[in-house]
């Protein structure tokens, strides 16, 4: 499954150890290339990418670019919601992009975006007001919270 794909991708992404230990490079933080490959394999197999998304979000870099590449082609509802939640939780740059997700078909994705979207993003305030009128609590909360 997905765990095996991740382990295989990480193993394939690691270069062979150098013969001289002084020439060794530290391993890349979070093995981002391995995670990209594992996400691609999991999507091809129509497997859940939730754990891979969580692993990427725990990395040291902003996960926006990689997780956005994962969320768009992912058809599994639970995975799309997990990815949106991880972006909202872990990405410093997601609030500026979250407005795009306010129109997503998945209510969980919309809720994750509504909770963190920048009110300065084009169309965000109007969409949040509409969602708040429809009863979406994260939209109401975001409208009441002062900008960061």
Give the secondary structure arrangement, pairings included.
Layout: H1 2-13, H2 32-44, H3 50-57, H4 64-71, H5 77-90, H6 94-97, H7 107-116, H8 124-133, H9 137-144
Helix pairs in contact: 1-2, 2-3, 3-5, 4-5, 5-7, 7-9, 8-9
Please explain how this structure is put together.
The chain has 148 residues and is mainly α. It is 59% helix and 0% strand. The chain has helices at residues 2-13, 32-44, 50-57, 64-71, 77-90, 94-97, 107-116, 124-133, 137-144. Helix 3 (50-57) runs parallel beside helix 5 and helix 5 packs parallel to helix 7. The relative contact order is 0.10. The model is unreliable at 9-18 and 20-29 (pLDDT under 50).
Helix and strand element order: HHHHHHHHH
Structural class: mainly alpha
Helix run count: 9
Straight-line N-to-C gap: 40 Å
Q: Any idea what the radius of gyration is? A: 18 Å
Please report the total strand number as a whole number: 0
Shape: elongated
Characterize the largest beta sheet: strand count, sense, and whether it forms a barrel. none
Describe this structure in a few short sentences.
By secondary structure, this protein is an all-alpha fold. It has helices at 2-13, 32-44, 50-57, 64-71, 77-90, 94-97, 107-116, 124-133, 137-144.
């Amino acid at each position: 499954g997905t765990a095996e794909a991740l382990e295989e991708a990480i193993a394939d992404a690691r270069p062979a150890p150098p013969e001289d230990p002084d020439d060794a490079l530290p391993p890349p933080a979070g093995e981002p290339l391995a995670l990209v490959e594992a996400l691609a394999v999991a999507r091809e197999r129509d497997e859940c990418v939730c754990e891979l998304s969580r692993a990427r979000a725990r990395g040291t870099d902003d996960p926006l670019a990689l997780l956005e590449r994962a969320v768009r082609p992912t058809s599994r509802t639970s995975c799309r919601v997990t990815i949106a939640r991880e972006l909202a939780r872990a990405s410093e740059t997601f609030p500026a992009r979250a407005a795009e997700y306010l129109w997503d078909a998945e209510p969980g994705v919309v809720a994750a975006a509504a909770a963190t979207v920048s009110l300065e993003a084009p169309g965000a305030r109007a969409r949040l007001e509409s969602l708040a009128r429809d009863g979406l609590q994260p939209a109401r909360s975001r409208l009441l919270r002062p900008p960061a």
